[in-house]
Amino acid sequence: MQTVTGLYDNHGDAKTAVSALEDAGISPSNISIVGRNGKAGESNAGEGAATGAGVGAVVGGAGGLLTGLGMLAIPGVGPVVAAGWLVATATGAVAGAVAGGAAGGIIGSMTSAGVDENDAHVYAEGVRRGGTLVSARVEDDQVELARSIINDKVPVDLNTRRAMYREEGWQGFDETSADLTEEELMRERERARDYRPMA
């Protein structure tokens, strides 16, 4: 299996990508969505999916992945609306005390699924700053299809986003970073929207 991933500034675009992946025949069990900018009211997982609760209450659900969206916290990212295999492995790694740097948490989950570690850091930081991540584990013969669907919904350009972060001295995702406030998230989204790389 290979992993195809996209980061979106718009939560609605990410949800549309998830639905399109499912419509194309990719199993919901092989798709993940993790985002800071979803609305808590979207959760269908109930109070049992609150921060600190077991992931079992968050993932899965009949009718597709999006029906299983729930709230939880990921170290270094903060509270997210999420569902899928990536969340289960990221929080499972934390619960198993494997977290810390690339060995666990969201970075470890992505890299163990085949995502380049440098890219995983940008994806995780992007979610921390208000983006929404969609990731699909697919068979080799589905890679191009999954990539086409994810790209059709116009994800952020990872190299441009990496450059934006590095211009401010960012070196990589840090699980010990403080959660961003709603005001800080709004500023990050505006900055990302208006960003132009330095010449």
Question: Can you describe what's shown?
Answer:
Residues 5-69 form the General stress protein 17M-like domain. This protein has helices at residues 11-23, 85-95, 105-112, 117-128, 143-152, 158-167, 182-194; strands spanning 2-8, 31-35, 70-74, 78-84, 132-138. It is of the alpha+beta class and 199 residues long. The chain has one domain. Strands 1-5-2-4-3 form a five-stranded antiparallel sheet, with helices on both faces. β3 (70-74) and β4 (78-84) form a beta hairpin. α1 packs antiparallel against α5 (143-152) and α3 (105-112) packs across α4. The longest helix has 13 residues, at 11-23.
Write the layout of secondary structure elements.
Layout: E1 2-8, H1 11-23, E2 31-35, E3 70-74, E4 78-84, H2 85-95, H3 105-112, H4 117-128, E5 132-138, H5 143-152, H6 158-167, H7 182-194
Antiparallel strand pairs: 1-5, 2-4, 2-5, 3-4
Helix pairs in contact: 1-5, 2-3, 3-4, 4-6
Distance from N terminus to C terminus (CA atoms, Å) equals 38 Å
Unreliably modeled segments? 38-62, 93-103
Count the beta strands: 5
**Overall domain count:** 1
Mean pLDDT: 80
What is the helical fraction, as a range of percent?
25-40%
Characterize the overall form.
globular
Domain General stress protein 17M-like: 5-69
Protein name: General stress protein 17M-like domain-containing protein
In short:
This protein is an alpha+beta fold.
Defining traits:
199 residues; alpha+beta; five-stranded antiparallel sheet; globular
